[in-house]
Amino acid sequence: MGFRGNDRGIVASATAAAGQDFQSAVIFNAIQDALKADGHTLVNKVKGVYCFEVKGGPGGSEAKWIVDAKNGSGSVTLNGTAKPDVTISMNDSDLVDLMEGKLNPQKAFFQGKLKIKGNMGLAMKLQEFQKQAQQLKAKL
Amino acid sequence: MPSVVREMPLFASLTMLHVTNHWQMRACDGLRVVLQHREMREIESMRARTGPMRGPGIADLASEASNWAEEYLASETHVQEIGPGGDWTKEFLEQQHGLTSPDIIPDSDTRWAHEYLSETLLDEAASAEASKWVEEYNPQEDSELARTANELLGTVDDPKFSNTEFMSFIKILGEGAKTDTNKDWSEEFLTSNSKEAGSLAESWSAEFIKERRQPHERWGEEFAKQLGSLDNMTIDSETMSTKEKEDFWQNLQDEWEKMAREDELTEHPWLSEFNSTAFEPFKNYQFEEDNPLKDHPDPLSEGKRCLEAGDLPSAVLLFEAAAQQSPENAEAWLLLGVTHAENEQDPSAISALRRCVEIDPNNSVAWMALATSYTNESYQTLACNSLKEWIRVNPEYNHSLPINDEAIHRKPRLMATTLAPRELIQEVQDLYIAAANQRPGENIDADVQCGLGVLFNLTGEYEKAIDCFNASLSVRPKDAKLWNKLGATLANSERSEEAIDAYRNALEISPGFIRCRYNLGISCINLGAHREAMEHFLEALNMQAAGRGPGGKESSRAVSDNIWTTLKICLSSLNARHLMDAVDKRDLKRLNAEYEVTSSS
């Protein structure tokens, strides 16, 4: 699954272009880059497939990303169909804030902004990717 | 009943396995054994496979198992009496003492199965299924279950197996919920796909078999590495009530804490609340191996000169030399720490600042700097404790701290608090607000305001933090670090344009302020100005690369991995794939040329 032959699995079709309009696109680009840079290490650490259900995109649209950190050197696929081990459901801007370390995960969990369905251990391994995304957090 | 109770766990596990899909587990001690097993997640993923015939037997037994569960839990006290930490596992093991061959289950085991079946099964259909199951369980047939039981026996002597908070929690959950939901659970179980139950049992046993082939030590190690029981935790947060969420998170934390303490895991930012008792990051300072300035005759003075001139990378090397030449010099460590922070290297900053406060616990500048760096790295408790220490060592304000405050007696003072994170934050907030109120009207204490600003960044209350930094800037308008803090707060609250203004003020005062330049680049990315962001990153990296000794040797210590990583992200947004390997090789020359940046050496 995915769009082989392209630079990024995300930019390949009309629906995919819409994916890039989401604020979260930055996050998924970063994750994809992390996987490209050191996919095998990440896959060995994480060993799971995530599904991100993102609501509240441009014009209220929704999108789904599959982050496979289980097979090979990993991949990121917009509207992928792989079966996830955990599904994270969030609002577009909330997801960005969470991954960039600006939204406290515990808080988000309790407020229902962060919905987790499936393997909790895997959800916590999101931290590996947060490290990547947190490269966009300003330092005091 | 006692004998049945003790041996129940194995059976219980089989029956319980199915319900892990729904997080409410009706637990018993035996469940500990299964849940602790890291392979549970693999079991779950194998659920789809079709399984052998023994499935239905288990499913039917479940209807009776609810009664059994209550009985078991009621007899829980009996089990506990065995002794601290001993519980059922020891007795169980003692019974199996005579085991020789791994493939043969002694009669006592099959007997308990029969006992169980005959005692709990009331209806005929169920017992018919059950006897079928027992037949299949015949060890002579070399069944997986037989082997499995032995694997279980083999692994239970690992102490990690038996006692975790998590397991007791599951038990409590089970007890709490059992009155109203037991029925649902058993119904649930019955209506489930019996094939699933069978395959579950099979895969569970397969995992145990595999596990048995590895040494027990390695099991513990892998358990730690792979987050063990956390992988077994499957939830659906949308269906959880607030109370359930609270309990869940608390136990997630406890479990993590336990694992971390035993196996020296790193802290998890999601559970940053926990980072108190046993765990402290960035403990030991790592000196540059090849410091060209190591033997400088007066590194401390020279370092201060460099700092003044805005040459952070050289200052780092000089302060390292100073700290190596006089390891008990708190000032050297302090300067090393603050310079690292300004040079966008919080982990090194933290290590150095820790050394400083170890030597000089009254060093308030160090405590504030620590609070800032810890906040950047999201270590809430450590940041709060540092802020608290700042108050404690400040004669103007420390009267508000109780004299027999428990933290005084702890060494080092950074560690441990028995307060829950929310309480700690509230306490620190109260302390700082009281301190701020101590000074009337215009007589603002810039450091108190700074501390408050840092605290509000921790809690995400950015608007309040902005007010605080503005207040401290009114007193110290030429403080580049304060301008940077204001800018960072603005940036993290999506006010990137205003952030850039603040950063420009800081850089005007202190052009060598690497962190600030890096932040500026980040804000440019946030505003979509990727090319400009690249320029800022490259400028920062050029400055860092220029930090070299008289021999002209570059220092790797002075270069921030952070900046390179963010630069890479920026490049990919620019779709500049062709430059990726320049980044990997850290080929500044090439990147400079591409983005028309002149290197500052």
Automatic annotation (TrEMBL), chain A:
Pfam family, one: SCP2
Top-level division of the source organism's lineage: Eukaryota
InterPro entries: SCP2_sterol-bd_dom, SCP2_sterol-bd_dom_sf
One CC-aspect GO term: cytosol
Every SCP2 domain range: 28-130
Name of the protein described by the UniProt record: SCP2 domain-containing protein
Native source organism of the sequence: Cherax quadricarinatus (Australian red claw crayfish)
Lineage: Eukaryota, Metazoa, Ecdysozoa, Arthropoda, Crustacea
From TrEMBL, chain B:
Broad class of the protein's primary localization: cytoplasm
Alphabetized Pfam families for the sequence: TPR_16, TPR_19, TPR_8
Residue spans of the TPR repeats: 330-363, 446-479, 480-513
An example Gene Ontology molecular-function term: peroxisome matrix targeting signal-1 binding
GO CC annotation terms, alphabetical: cytosol; peroxisomal membrane
Keyword Repeat listed: yes
GO biological process: protein import into peroxisome matrix, docking
PROSITE patterns membership: TPR (PS50005), TPR_REGION (PS50293)
Subcellular location: Cytoplasm; Peroxisome
Keyword check for Phosphoprotein: no
UniProt entry keywords in alphabetical sequence: Cytoplasm, Peroxisome, Repeat, TPR repeat
Family: Belongs to the peroxisomal targeting signal receptor family.
Protein name, entry field: Peroxisomal targeting signal 1 receptor
Organism: Cherax quadricarinatus
Source organism phylogeny: Eukaryota, Metazoa, Ecdysozoa, Arthropoda, Crustacea
